[in-house]
Amino acid sequence: MIHFYFHPTPNPAKVALFLEEAKLPYEVLPIDTRKGEQHSPAFLAVNPNGKVPAIVDTDGVGGETRAFDSSAILLYLGDKTGTFIGTAADRGELLSWLFFIGTGLGPFSGQAVHFQRAAPEPLPYAINRYRREAQRHYEVLNAHLASRDWIVGSNYSIVDISAWGWLDRAAFVLSKEEDPLSAYPNLRRWFAAVEARPAVARARRVGADHAFKTEMDETARRAMFPSNYAIER
After folding, report:
1. Is RNA-binding given among the entry's keywords (predicted)?
2. C-alpha span between 149 and 151 (Å, rounded)
3. N or C: which end of the chain has fewer CB within 10 A?
C-alpha cells in the first residue's frame, strides 16, 4: 500500500496522476500546508524537507520505503512497477528531461506564481525574471515536441506526467487566463493529448473530499514561507 501525502498543488498532482495511471492501491493523507501541517514532527519523519508530495510504500523492496520530491517518487514508482519509464535506451533522455522539469520548469514556474500572486509587494524585476525563464522552458519543450508525440521515446512516460503537473497551471504562471499555451502550438497539442487520458480526470478528483484551507492569512504565510520570518543569526 502506498501512503500518499497530498496537497492540491502541482507537484503532488504529478504523483496522483501516476498512481491513477498505474492503478496502484494508495491511501491519501492530506497535508494542509496553509495550516502548517508540513512542519509537524510526524510529517518531517517522512520528509525532513517539510514539502509535499511524499510517500511511504509499505511494500517496498526490503520493507517499508519512503520517497519524497515528485521526481524521485515518479522514478521510484516507475521502477517499482516497470511502467511509464521508457526503454533502457531511453534512460539518459528520460533522466535528462525529468531533471529539466525538476530543476528548471518547475522551480521557475513556482517562483513566477509566487512573485505575481503571493509576494507582499510587486517586484517587477523578479516577476519578469521568473516568468520569462518559465516561458523559455516552454519554448524548449515546444521546439522539442515539433516532430514527436511524447517528450521521451515513442510512448507516454513519467516525464510527460511530471511536465503536466506544472503546465496544467500555465494560466497562473503566465498570468494569461485564456489559452495560455497559444504561443506554443506543439506544447498545446501535447497537453491536450495528456488531458485526454482517463487517468487525468481521476487524478483531479484526488483529495476533493478534504476541505483544505484556502485563506492566505498570516498563519498561512508563516506556514508556507517560514524563511521570510526566520531570525537572522
Report:
1. no
2. 7
3. C
Which residue in the block uniquely carries the three cell numbers 524585476? 125
Q: How many CB atoms lie within 10 A of CB 193?
A: 13
> What are the structural domain ranges in the chain?
2-83+202-229, 88-196
pLDDT at 114 over 80: yes
Nine-digit cell string for 229: 520570518
pLDDT tens for each residue of 154-177: 999 999 999 999 999 999 999 988
Q: Which fold has domain 2-83+202-229?
A: Glutaredoxin (3.40.30)
H/E stretch holding 125 reads: helix 124-144
Q: How confident is the model at residue 121 (pLDDT cuts 50, 70, 90)?
A: very high
| DSSP element (H, E) containing 18 | helix 10-22
CA distance 15 to 203: 9
Does the domain at residues 88-196 carry the CATH identifier 1.20.1050.10? yes
State the Cα–Cα distance between residues 20 and 37, nearest whole angstrom: 25
Query: Which H helix or E strand runs over 5?
Result: strand 2-6
